[in-house]
Specification:
This protein has nine helices and eight strands. By secondary structure, the chain is an alpha/beta fold.
């Protein structure tokens, strides 16, 4: 059982949420982390941390995870007691709502923690400590091996998206720390890849300045996007795929065309990690 405190760790978020807002993140988790969920000898435990004023994202996450492993159980955790009470009518087999924060007050080790739009209100200097605390609740590395992104065992997915889920950027971490950064978008809404900069997670958003790796990555992505302009006649998806192929010549990507077709690209963390 996780250690309990008399007061949850963290501060309340604004609580804004919308149905289907986190669909891109959910689908990526189910696809990339699904094999690890299925290998779990016990029913996997997932957490939607800071789900907000309404429980839509927790309900949706469980449904999508169960396409990967029908045994999955999910806990929605909120630091505001009123939000937990409002979510209680939506509980059903495999879905529960609890009062808590970064201590993650659920039994045992966790296969997945999703923390979407939670750390935006914190200072950049606080992010590492929060990551470490949450990663400490994750299941240990899987003896069967890591997934294609290098993740082992339980997974923390922490990031940010816009209000209706068109643009996301998230970091994936395991107990060893951050592994990858994923950029995901509705391609029809994109003018250029650097439009995603406004959705960088807290660990990176203040690093989008000259001299920092994430700034160089977005600069190169814009250049590749411009060079792929002739592919626009075939559609935004084909232009994106061509741009990402060009990007792969200089940046260590952790995915391939199957994910690129979804309007995604995943980069290894060490290539984008803040300097200093």
């Amino acid at each position: 059982m996780a250690p309990r405190t008399t007061r949850p760790v963290g501060t309340p978020t604004r609580g804004t949420t919308n149905p289907n807002r986190l669909r891109r993140m959910d689908r990526w988790i189910a696809a990339v982390h699904g094999p690890a969920l299925r290998r779990s000898p016990e029913p996997p435990v997932a957490v939607d941390l800071g789900y907000g004023a309404a429980p839509w994202t927790a309900v949706e996450l469980l449904a999508r995870l169960r396409t990967a492993d029908p045994r999955t159980r999910l806990y929605g955790i909120e630091i505001e007691p009123a939000r937990v009470e409002a979510a209680k009518p939506y509980e059903h087999e495999g879905l529960s709502f609890l009062h808590g924060g970064f201590e993650v007050p659920v039994p045992g080790q966790v296969s997945l923690i999703r923390a979407a739009n939670v750390l935006r209100q914190y200072d950049e200097e606080q992010v590492t400590a929060v990551w470490q605390r949450l990663c400490g609740r994750l299941a240990p590395p899987d003896p069967a091996g890591s997934g294609p992104g290098g993740y082992g065992g339980g997974l923390l997915v922490e990031g940010t998206c816009d209000e209706i889920g068109r643009r996301h950027v998230w970091v994936a971490l395991d107990r060893g720390g951050p592994r990858t950064v994923t950029f995901a978008t509705r391609l029809g809404s994109l003018d250029r890849p650097s439009d995603l900069a406004e959705r960088l997670p807290k660990a990176l958003i203040h690093r989008n300045v000259p001299g920092e790796p994430v700034h160089a990555f977005l600069r190169d992505f814009d250049r590749a996007w411009a060079a792929a302009a002739p592919y626009a006649s075939l559609g935004a998806r084909q232009r994106w795929i061509r741009a990402v192929r060009d990007l792969a010549a200089d940046w260590p990507l952790a995915d391939g065309p199957r994910r690129w077709r979804q309007g995604e690209v995943t980069v290894r963390w060490e290539a984008l990690a803040p300097r200093g």
